[in-house]
Amino acid sequence: MKRVLVIYIVMFTMVFASTNKDIILYKIPNKDLKISAQTIVDGLILQGYTVSKNQDMNGPYEKQFKATLFNSYNLISVYHRDIAVKLIPKVPKSGIFTPFSIVTYQKKGEDDFFIAFLSAEAQQHILKVKDSYFNNLEKKTRETIIKTVPLAVEESLSYGSIVTEKPLYTEYSFDVKDKEAIEARDDMTMMMESDMKPSGFVVANYIDFNQVLNEEKVNDFIFYDAYSLCKLKIIYELSKKHPEAGAFAPCTMVIYHKKKSNKTKVVTLSIENLTSSLAIKDKTILKMLVKAQDTMKRIIEDSAE
What we know:
Layout: E1 2-10, E2 15-16, E3 23-29, H1 37-46, E4 49-56, H2 58-65, E5 70-80, H3 81-90, E6 100-107, E7 112-118, H4 120-127, H5 132-148, E8 153-155, E9 162-163, E10 167-175, H6 181-196, E11 202-208, H7 209-215, E12 221-230, H8 232-241, E13 251-258, E14 263-269, H9 272-277, H10 283-303
Helix pairs in contact: 1-5, 3-5, 4-5, 6-10
C-alpha cells in the first residue's frame, strides 16, 4: 500500500449547545429488576434487527477493577439489515454505525433502568451527510423500545453538547489495485490485530458485511469489514459519570474496498465524538482518550506500510 491520506472532517467553532440532541435516553421503572438488556435484545430481534453482540460489562468491571456502580451495564451492538443494506452503498462511511451501539444500565440502589443510543441528527452531523435512512432508523428504534417496554419515558440529559473544530471521524485512503485488494487487506488486518491487544484494544465483534450485502444482491464492494473495538479502562472510567457514554462503545471501524476504485479505505470515529457529545472536561479522561486515539492512528498507519 502507498500514499496514506488522512482526511479529517472538521466541524465549526467550539460552543456549548443549550440542549443535548446527540444522545437519546429512555428511563423505565424497574424496581423489581425484571427488565434487563436481554429484554431489549429480544424486542430488537422481534422487530427485524440483527444483534451482533450483547456484552455484559458489569462482570468485567468487577473482575478487573474490583468495583462497579451498576446492577447491570450492557453494550448492545445492533443493526437493522434492511436499512443498512440500502444505506451503506449510498454512504459507505456510514458503516461506522453498522452496527451502532445501544447501552442499557441500572445503577445500584436505584429503581430505574436506562437505554441510550445516538440520534440520527448526531450520526448525520458526524458524517456530514443527510439521508432519510438515518431518520428512518431512529424512528424504528424508538418505536421498538416503546413496543418492548411500554413504560419507557424519554429523558433529557442534564448537560448540553459541545460543537468542536476538531475532527469527528477520520478516513484513511490507501492506493491498492483491485486485484491486490484482498491480499493487502489480509496483511493489514493481521498486523493491526497483532498490535491492538498489547495496546489494550479488544475486538469485541467482527462482521463481514459484504456477505450481508451479497445476500441481498448488492455487489458494490470487494470487501466490507466492520470491527467493533473497545478499551475496557476507558468505558469503565467514562461510565462512572456518564453511563450514557456506552452509546459510543464499542466503536465501529470499517475497512472496505469499492469495486473499480483501486482504493482501500479505513474509517473510524474520533474521540471528539465523546468529548463533544458528553461535554467531557476531566483532564485525566481527556488525556486517556487522546492517548487511545493516537495509539489507534499509529496502529492503522503502521499496518499499511
